[in-house]
Amino acid sequence: MTPATVARVLVDAWLPRAAEHHPDRPAVNALTYAELLGEVDATARRLAGRGVRAGDRVGIALAPGEAFCIALHAILRLGAVAVPVDLRLSARERERVVQGTAEVIDGAVIGTPASEARLRERHDLDAPAIVVHTSGTSGTPKAVELTYGNWLWSALGSAVALGLDPAERWLCALPLSHVGGLSIVMRSAIYATTAIVHERFDTDRVLDALVREDGPTIVSLVPTTLQRLLDAGLREPPALRWALLGGAPATTALQGRAAAAGVPVATTYGLTEACSQVTTLGAPLFCTRVRMAGDGEILVSGPTVAPGAGPVLATGDLGEWRPDGALAVAGRKADTIVSGGENVAPAEVEAVLEAHPDVFEAAVHGRADPEWGEAVVATVVADPDVQADELRAWCAERLARFKVPKEIAFTVALPRTPSGKVVRKDLQ
Quick one: three-class SS letters along the chain? Predict the structure, then answer.
């Protein structure tokens, strides 16, 4: 019997398609799609002249902005694979990220264009497009190879979950070396809508953009940046349809504060291996399947899952289905604290601490203990007047005795990755 074969699925290349149908529409900041395509094709031909070929990996060591997006799309136009580099990494860490690349773009691409360069007019959905490195909360960042199909299905799923305005203006102040920021640039090209890309998160600049009548229709934030915007006076942004909130769990208090300020929040859970969003507003994305293992670990499958992580992605996160059918994420499986033989989920204790009116943020972790095996301890960002004994009493009223932190320390800021996740190992 002849083995079955699956034909490649080819789709029109996203950037040329957008430029053909919407040449004058802003693509990235003020750069129109026609202008972007012109810059991209010129850059692609210069890269080809420097020897870059289809299938090669090409690093991008540029700050977020127009130049980064031009480099990204130029690499894709050649059928090469983009490898974004986080500029905040040390020199040694960067070397690991770009290992095996044929070229690293860290400035203007110069050289003689290759007039015969073959620019891709189709995308093979099974072909690798971008290698994204995880944020590395517990060790060395891991390389995840995401295909054109992963990005397309992620964009479709996001549009179904959030709706799609033909005049969408999605503000990105996240790192473009991480999947949350990259997904905005990629989705905007697929949708032929506008990506507003800031080099970094600046509260005043983002606030100024959001309060304009013609401001962003969507903004991607993490809980810390949403809190900063609310502290700065954000209220009823006129054009905003959604503040997409991810990177870390958002407390009920923060969501309530946003609602009171007229900021529409869509909470999201996702990870690099699933090309960003897995659930939005608690529901799995279109064609994404979520189920629980026997120990409560979240398992994800579907067309957004990276080939190297599938067919079923064991996320390492614990969760449960709420009575309303929404997914509630309880935290990392590896973060579970075993104290006196009892399992303690840090996220549950953190939620109780953050419900205290004088606590702004909390992080809970285990500490080796000769009596209990592990002791539950907490680090909080709080009003200077609050005392540890008061917070322990607050927890004792709301939690089982073995979940109450044995110690509570205070700090001015929790250690976080650029994508907003707490780095628990830095709290040890």
Answer: CCCCCCCCCEEECHHHHHHHHCCCCEEECCEEHHHHHHHHHHHHHHHHHCCCCCCCEEEECCCCCHHHHHHHHHHHHCCCEEEECCCCCCHHHHHHHCCCCCEEECCCCCCCCCCCCCCCCEEECCCEEEEEECCCCCCCCCEEEEEHHHHHHHHHHHHHHHCCCCCCEEEECCCCCCHHHHHHHHHHHHHCCEEEECCCCCHHHHHHHHCCCCCCCEEEECHHHHHHHHHCCCCCCCCCCEEEECCCCCCHHHHHHHHHCCCCEEEEEEEHHHCEEEEECCEECCCCEEEECCCCEEEEECCCCCHHHCCEEEEEEEEEECCCCCEEEEEEHHHCEEECCEEECHHHHHHHHHCCCCEEEEEEEEEEECCCEEEEEEEEEECCCCCHHHHHHHHHCCCCHHHCCCEEEECCCCCECCCCCECHHHHC
